């Protein structure tokens, strides 16, 4: 194992074991290196790597701290990785989203508040019947994010947020080339919203599946 990898593993073990907890300040570099049997250079590289993926927070002049380890913070790294996808893997990302998002939508049907439903309705009303593709995609992202956040599962919400990147291009492309894609998307949004208002988890799950599968099916036919 490379010395930097070993250093990362040792710091990880301290966090997983509870020796370091969210918000804790790490010991001074010289002390921590001695305690872990590491060189200061390898420790420094490990800290730099762990700060990039939001495990550690290096504060100049103050020290290095364990972050909150909140799922949304940690899964920001997923969004970064997803941005490097190749065009031929978009279908794989959509397939994962088709598994996760309907489940989150079904969960939201039992938890979403009337105020949240009213906000989603107002969002769709403001968009109108003939929005631009760009406005529709922006609304689509916020619409689904609002629903998934209502599922009550922060990990699921963060995962789906991270997976939305590559599917955005697919939705834009679809809106520019497929007849009635905008109208179909709006109708599917309304159907999902109606199922949520009825507190019908299975109908909400089904409409969310149809909504994602229609993009996936179209994209599969064009690649």
Automatic annotation (TrEMBL):
SUPFAM superfamilies: GntR ligand-binding domain-like (SSF48008), Winged helix' DNA-binding domain (SSF46785). Pfam families: FCD, GntR. Keywords: DNA-binding, Pyruvate, Transcription, Transcription regulation. The keyword Transcription applies. The keyword Transcription regulation applies. Residues 1-69 form the HTH gntR-type domain. This is GntR family transcriptional repressor for pyruvate dehydrogenase complex. It comes from Streptomyces africanus.
